[in-house]
Amino acid sequence: MPKGPAKTANSTDKDERYRAPALDKGLDILELLSEQPGGLTRAEIVKAMGRGPSEVYRMLERLVARDFVSRSPEGDRYALTMKLFILAHRHPPVRRLVARAQPLMDAFSIAVGQSCHLVAPDRDAALVVAHASPPGNWEFGIRIGAHIDLLTTSSGHILLAFQDEHSQAEAAARWDGTDMAGAREKLEPVLTAYRDTGHRVGPSQQMRAIDDISVPILSPDGFAIAVLTCPYIQRLDDKQADIDQTLILLKDVAAKLSLS
């Protein structure tokens, strides 16, 4: 399973003090199955987790009973249900933001001939919570529910650039002594420039031939509660707005969604 950022001594002490082994086992199973779209057999789960068959069996039975995990009709394969996805989308602030943003995003995509997506912060990453597609045959998009990196994406950079002091302090404590702390420090001049301009327009850090346009959706105090990003594709016909027009229209959407 993927490893998270290195833990500091203080975080390790706290983790040991408040250990809940049964809960940890259940969360380990959910994280393992989240990486397996086809599911896993019980034997495969036991092997991957390095735990005893009986303790994994008991935990799987409880997760099935609570509808977080489904069992195949043959009874030998387990997979995640949609329950976690449904619970995540019940989060009121995100749900309200998506409800307000979706029609504006749809209108933007129709007007400029480009896709766009809405990204919300999710601890040490960001989560795509909405997406709008343009008419026609061509687009570049990212799926709803995708986790994206804060340090290597346009959306992540804008979230960091407009991060509130409390979130900065929490992230600094979690990242202390890790590679993420050094990478964040090196980014500071770039983030300062984005704060000054109020947006980012530049080459995608994941895909060639795409320019990302990212603008923050702001709280009343001027901090980012979310980010709108348009992965701008230059087409060879004239059925699209140019990149400057696209930025203006995307900033207009963000302004309508920002809290005053």
Automatic annotation (TrEMBL):
List the keywords (alphabetical): DNA-binding, Transcription, Transcription regulation
InterPro entries recorded? GAF-like_dom_sf, HTH_MetabolicPath_Reg, Tscrpt_reg_IclR_C, Tscrpt_reg_IclR_N, WH-like_DNA-bd_sf, WH_DNA-bd_sf
Q: Where is the IclR-ED domain?
A: 83-260
Q: Does the keyword Amino-acid biosynthesis apply?
A: no
Q: Name one GO biological process term.
A: negative regulation of DNA-templated transcription
Gene Ontology terms, MF aspect: DNA binding; DNA-binding transcription factor activity
Q: Does Metal-binding count among this protein's keywords?
A: no
Supply the PROSITE patterns for this chain: HTH_ICLR, ICLR_ED
Q: Name one Pfam family in it.
A: IclR_C
The superkingdom of the source organism is Bacteria
Residue ranges constituting the HTH iclR-type domain according to the UniProt record:
20-82
Q: PANTHER family this protein is in?
A: HELIX-TURN-HELIX TRANSCRIPTIONAL REGULATOR, ICLR FAMILY, HTH-TYPE TRANSCRIPTIONAL REGULATOR KDGR-RELATED
Supply the name of the protein. Answer: DNA-binding IclR family transcriptional regulator
Give the source species.
Aminobacter aganoensis
